[in-house]
């Protein structure tokens, strides 16, 4: 099966040659020795789809640079995202994470759009991300742009609470590389990269990566046996045949095998049992990028990609093909108006097979997404007051037409001060599971008057509509000196038509010696969330930098009129109220670095697990990570990283279904990187 998957993906790469996009890509140099003012000039594209300096962005944007990733000592993308304020990252087990922005976190978090070079990596099965297969070579990442707050007017449905865009380096900016990481608990990562030039104006790179990781600890401190192995590889080609045209092509394959532990329903006492499941996953993608500069004030781009994802585990067994085409045109109407508009088309083709715990009705489906957007940036007062107005119109096969507008205002009263405000609407469109999924989740003992055990299952609802958000944001950004910056963002979010589960007692079906009880997905909950995020960057000395991030979040929920007996998905205590991150980057010498990273996550007192409204709690935890890096030569780097050095093993999250809590323990790893 694995060999067949790899062969299929290889054929896909050969015959699927296309072209991709990235309107306004800009290479970012090494930021190691940049001062704070220079960092504010970093160009980002995720907030407006055109190049714009961080300082001039009317949104809560945070950039994780390659140097941030390197000096943090992280070995995966999820842990790198802990660097950004407002992002909630929690490890579930050795191979799974719960990641979101501004609330509603979970294994199946569905209000966050994640992109790699503009390519959506969310799965239509549950409108979330399988983070364990997003295994890029970290050294290939140029930066990660994190937009907190809605980005739907530009990026479309599911960009509800935020957008994460992982942007990789140009092939011409990479060297050949060998990287080896090994640590305890057993964790081996081998990365290979080969870069070169093809004639005039063309550069390429090839990469491969292998990961082998042992399991975490279960709640009793024993080996959870959830090992994880992943192999991936790919390429990038960049070509500039003229001053006006640029082409890029990307491709990649992956194949993974992982162990996972589920507490699954059983119709005999104690009505749940531990199941050790082996999951298999494979897939690949091919993406292209063409951009033409028409003039100093006008450019257009075309993006196209095809990707395939296959997964077989106890919950879902599926094969999904995605084809996406996106066109954009940016130009200046006049000296005060910058306009960007675009058209998009996406097609999904899926096939679901009966798994042990879940299935999909219908089992095969083709469905489409059409979109069009426009955005106008207007200089009301040049260099002082800027208004951005935009909207996106989409049509999907589950909920029909969706309209997502956005209004933003940026005020620059002084040279190094920015004040911005925004009002946005965004929607989370139904996933395949929302519409037609079936999942056996929990069993209950016999109850009178019918003395039979009960099997409760989730059931999709063809009448399920989009979840809606109206967001209000206010932010302030300043860099009063070359050594100091401050970024504050406040938000109030009003949600409607959030999903909950409704017990359908009128549909109880008698099975073979037990009762089947469906819980139907319904749009029955409203919510208000509010909070703020603070990020500071202080270059205390030429050789010492401090970075502080703090996030505060509160949530309230209430049932919509007409719904009284609901099984909630979230409660007010289902997310941490406080998160703090403090990093110190210390250059002992020009070739010797010491980095210290402390972060704190508040308790989670009311995590909903299962469908009987059971709750679990997660204690607050404090983690101390340290890294020592040495560069004896320009082409060689050695480093030693310790994680959770002072704290005991701790649980970070409990999965919503089939909960089997696992603990993150103390770890130490060494890494060697050779560039040539």
Q: How many domain units? A: 1
For the biggest sheet, the summary is: 22 strands, antiparallel, barrel
Strand content: over 45%
Name the overall outline. Answer: globular
Query: pLDDT below 50 for ≥5 consecutive residues: which ranges?
Result: 1-32
CA-based gyration radius: 25 Å
Named CATH topology:
Maltoporin, Chain A
How would you describe the overall organization of this protein?
This protein is mainly beta and 676 residues long. It has a single domain (2-675), classed as TonB-dependent receptor, beta-barrel domain (Maltoporin, Chain A). It contains six helices and 41 strands. The strands form six sheets. The protein has a 22-stranded antiparallel β-barrel. The two termini are 37 Å apart. Residues 1-32 have low confidence and may be disordered.
Quick gist of this model?
With 676 residues, the chain is mainly beta. The protein is built from six helices and 41 strands. Residues 1-32 have low confidence and may be disordered.
Q: Which helices and strands, and how do they pair?
A:
Elements: H1 2-15, H2 36-39, E1 43-44, E2 52-53, E3 60-65, H3 66-72, H4 77-80, E4 87-93, E5 96-101, E6 112-116, E7 119-120, E8 141-148, H5 152-155, E9 162-168, E10 177-184, E11 187-197, E12 202-213, E13 217-218, E14 228-239, E15 245-265, E16 272-295, E17 298-312, E18 317-332, E19 337-353, E20 358-360, E21 364-381, E22 385-396, E23 400-414, E24 417-428, H6 432-436, E25 437-444, E26 454-459, E27 467-481, E28 484-503, E29 509-510, E30 515-541, E31 544-559, E32 566-567, E33 578-589, E34 592-601, E35 604-609, E36 614-618, E37 621-633, E38 636-643, E39 650-651, E40 662-664, E41 667-675
